[in-house]
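Contributing new complexes? Match this layout with S-adenosyl-L-homocysteine.
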Amino acid sequence: MVDTYKHKGMRQKLVNSIREKGIKDERVLSAINNIPRHLFLDSSFLEFAYDDKPFPIGSGQTISQPYTVAFQSELLEIEKGLKVLEIGTGSGYQACVLEEMGAKVFSVERQKKLFIKTKAFLKKIGYQSKIFYGDGNKGLPTFAPFDRILITAAAPQIADDLLDQLKVGGIMVVPFGDGNVQSMIKITKGKNGELKKEDFGHFSFVPLLKNKAND
Ligand code: SAH
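Output block (do not edit by hand):
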């Protein structure tokens, strides 16, 4: 569980490459610079932890590409103290990026094994994000409403439950669509509950699974 100068150097290079690809929010870049991504990968992938690529994390899931994490985080316009709901905890890396930016993170994962592993891991490395087991499509009514909602899996439709749990003035970011490629959609909820949708181009995510959580 060490973070060496070598890792820090590799991370700085990763941050530079993400900046070159167009990410401007310095708070996003500094969060990525602060988080030891190599700890989130199985040891066999250590060498590749700072490539700008997605990686398998077990249970058939992936840790998103750092550029994609940065892109979604930038669209969310995170400010200190905002309450953020993430659907698809996965490795927990994205949750940590939001937490580093000052958000209060609530994250839902439907794969029990991943949920157990990631919850324990985040605690171990000192992050406070609250991790829940269940179907993210239902959101977390007990903790709603949220300032921001982030979906980190491909959503063929956007659950009404999630839209209901978004505050007025809130932002939801979701890779929308089925198939191999989705459109990154930013939804802003207006004063009267009206939804403004903007399309930020194509990305590729693993699918958001429907129905009950599985073990
Ligand atoms: N944000 C993650 C990457 C997410 S990959 C990270 O930073 O590593 C997508 C994740 O969504 C997977 O872990 C998958 O198990 C989870 N997922 C899929 N359908 C879901 C659902 N209905 N509710 C909650 N999580 C779901």
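Reviewers usually confirm one structural detail per submission. For this one: The chain has a mean pLDDT of 94.
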